[in-house]
Amino acid sequence: MNTLIITGGHIDLPFAKKQVDTGVWDCVISADSGLNFCRKAGIWPDVILGDFDSADPDVLQFFQKKCPERILTFPAQKDETDTELAILHAIRAGADRITLLGATGSRLDHVLGNLQLLLPAMEAGAACIILDEHNRIRMIRDTLTIRREEQFGRYVSLLPFTPQVEGLTLTGFVYETENFTLTSGKARGVSNEIRDEEARIVLKSGILIVIESRD
Prior knowledge:
There is one protein chain. By secondary structure, the protein is of the alpha/beta class. 25% of the residues lie in helices and 33% in strands. The protein is built from six helices and 14 strands. The protein has helices spanning 13-22, 34-41, 57-66, 82-92, 108-116, 118-123, and strands spanning 2-6, 27-31, 47-50, 71-73, 97-101, 127-131, 135-140, 143-147, 155-160, 164-171, 177-183, 192-193, 198-202, 208-213. Strand 10 and strand 11 form a beta hairpin. The chain is elongated, with a radius of gyration of 18 Å. The protein starts with a strand and ends with a strand.
């Protein structure tokens, strides 16, 4: 089940609209002010959820009139962010692939919080990607192969999510390594590049954040 979550961070309208239009989505979830983009782009989410403290009141009222049965309202004082609620809803509905639009932007606390949310998705068996016009971000704990023709941008950065990532082997990159231990507190894995037609990341233990980026 391929699920798209539209949340309330920065969204580049042409880029995001292209992703929505070209993707094949089994379910589209709007989290809080992600609804503003949905209204602009003419998107009708299957599920609309959040505390709606940041959604445009006129936009919310529009969807309340048109499709009230799709709206799930939560209290403002809660443990989970609206994005987390959307991911948990997707997991419960059986999503095995999740794409997040609007999960980055100027609020670094929200960006870092959303990076944390890649973990429960991965633990539930769902491949979760944070996507914007400059970055494709995912979390891995074993092996990832990136084909040059499918890479998102020029750079591939590897950041340890756990204190250590052990047994890291990189092949097909400009900077390769074998059985290396990548440690938090250093920027050793930033700005690598794919050299061959296919690049491979293998690790034996730990969790790695993989960021494909372009300027």
